[in-house]
Amino acid sequence: MIPEKILSELIQINTSNPPGNETAAARYLAELLQQVGIDCEIIEPAAGRGSLIARFGAGPRKLLYISHLDVVPAGDDWDFEPFSGKIEGGTIHGRGAIDCKDLAAAQVCAALELAREGVSLNGELIIAATADEELGGELGAGYLTANCLEKIRADFAVNEGAPHPLLIKGQPLYFIQVGEKGTAWSKLTVRGVSCHGSMPALGDNAVVRMSRAVAALAEYEPEIVLIPELLALLRELSRIRGLEMEPTPDNIDELLEALELERDFTEMLRAMTRMTISPNIIGGGVSTNIVPDLCESELDIRILPGQNADYVLQELFKLLGAGVETVLTEYREPTFTSSQTEPYRLMAGLTGELAGPGAVCLPIISTGSTDSKYLREAGIPAYGIGHMAPDYDPAVSATMHGRNERIDIKSLRLKTDFLKELARRYLA
Ligand SMILES: [Zn+2]
């Protein structure tokens, strides 16, 4: 079985979330794996919302390959049928082709090939293909870690989550995701005194005071934090660009401009060096002739590994003072796995071997989150990959969660080879 065939058939099983319907995709993969004697189990916490767990080999070492089976809804205006899985011109087309059915197909294909070749592993390869990742993962990885953690516990996990490779001055840069920012969504409330709008000085206008608070947030300069993995990444980018700049908290914004990267990538790096605060909802007032006594605003706040809820509340208090009530409405800790480990070194070395001479592998953290947050919170170190062939078309990356999602066969095969070889070496 070749990975492009598995991917094409997986795409044809519509797992748009909502409603998900991942059990059908889990069954499809289970049938393939069972044909070569690999044990499979489908955990289904709600009808149709199944996640697959497969286990292959035996021994003290344990390696977890995890991906998700659900996809975001396709939307309109595609140039091809989103669930066709059509293979044409060296490309597999359809929703899920780079998020994340490519990884699911590559992980399953790697196990199938190892089984077929009769490779005897001195350890266990566990494959988890989860439901519900796109809407937070409560019914997928969240359920597995809360209810059957021992079925997926491993020395480390390989998941999605890194950006696709970047080509700078002809040099391919590959990334391994080692952390994800946390969320600290907050609600601000300002209370004033209402009065008739014809004599506003009698009251205390909550909208005016909130507007000052929001203006202060826009001016806020968050503390710059360079975690060692990010420092290594920035140093390497600086070296490749031929800049003689050692990244420091003081020169970081200057360095980011000097690197002359794509805007998306620059802003991603900027967000990896600090907490971000974005006031995204504001509301107050009931009538044009009444001075409002209440105004509320909701902030999307993302924090770095090492920062926490107390830090957020302290910073908001310093900036806004006691006149603005602040509560966290949704909080999730950042997560992190060190790059100073045997698995990381093995993955980085293998990337260099497969991607060819000159390819560099660097650690990165994400501004958003994946199922890796559940794994890391449960004590399973997790690494995210976004490996593609060195000559892949970067335009493909923008199709994630967008129109015309697709992947080239060479990239899918590189992923498969990487995962096959990683399992072979780690579980040797
Ligand atoms: Zn995904």
How would the blueprint of this fold be written?
Layout lengths: L2 H10 L9 H14 L3 E5 L7 E6 L4 E8 L18 E2 L2 E3 L7 H16 L6 E8 L10 H7 L1 H4 L3 E4 L6 E3 L2 E10 L1 E10 L3 E2 L9 H14 L8 H13 L11 H7 L4 H9 L4 E9 L5 E2 L2 E10 L5 H12 L4 E8 L2 E2 L5 H14 L4 E7 L5 H6 L4 E4 L20 E3 H18 L2
Parallel strand pairs: 3-6, 3-7, 7-18, 9-17
Antiparallel strand pairs: 1-2, 2-6, 4-5, 5-19, 8-9, 9-16, 9-18, 10-14, 10-15, 11-13, 12-14
Helix pairs in contact: 1-3, 3-13, 11-13
Zinc ion binds next to loops.
**Residue fraction in strands:** 15-25%
The CATH H-level superfamily of the largest domain is Zn peptidases
Total E-strand runs: 19
- Please give the count of helices: 13
Described by the principal axes of the CA atoms, the overall outline is: globular
Rg to the nearest angstrom? 24 Å
Structure ligands:
zinc ion
CATH topology of the largest domain: the name is Aminopeptidase
Q: How many individual domains?
A: 2
Mean pLDDT score, rounded? 97
- Which CATH architecture of the largest domain? 3-Layer(aba) Sandwich
Largest sheet: 10 strands, mixed
> How much helical structure, as a percent, in the residues?
25-40%
* Distance from first to last alpha carbon: 24 Å
Q: Structural class, from secondary structure content? A: alpha+beta
Low-confidence stretches: none
Q: Which CATH class of the largest domain?
A: Alpha Beta
